Amino acid sequence: MAIITKKQGQLEYLTAEGITVPHCFTTRLGGVSEGYLSSLNIGMHRGDDPKNVEDNYRILGAALGFSLEDLVLTRQIHTDMVRVVTRKDAGRGLDHRDFPECDALITKDPGVALVIFTADCTPILFHDPITGAVGAAHAGWKGTALGIAARTVEAMVREFGCDP
User: Fold this and answer.
1) How many C-beta atoms lie closer than 10 Å to residue 112's C-beta?
2) What is the model's pLDDT at position 96?
């Protein structure tokens, strides 16, 4: 599966060929944050002005088709915990510390935008074109060793009837 670089104005992000739902892997390019956080910082916990982080999500949302009210974030703790989310979980804010602990999110509610953070960890995206279910997992070494990818697939099968 090829990774494709996309540009919209100053925004630059990556997508995976073959995943047909809106998704991206962010880069640092195209946002409004300044200094050591420039430019597309989307982490409230980094010391950035919260307005900059909101604006960066708005820029990203304009490119991908989501609003701040569509977002569900994670409080990642390097485990194999998977959380099922719905439209009711969206729009709770941009501080990942305000969300329950887990390292993967799954949903089949259209329009819910899942957000995971990866620095030196690996993002894993899941999509079932039959059920419409999607998932996003944060896979650090510990989560990988615990089977976060398999746990995410198992949860999608159990919760949404996906066929792996």
Assistant:
1) 21
2) 83
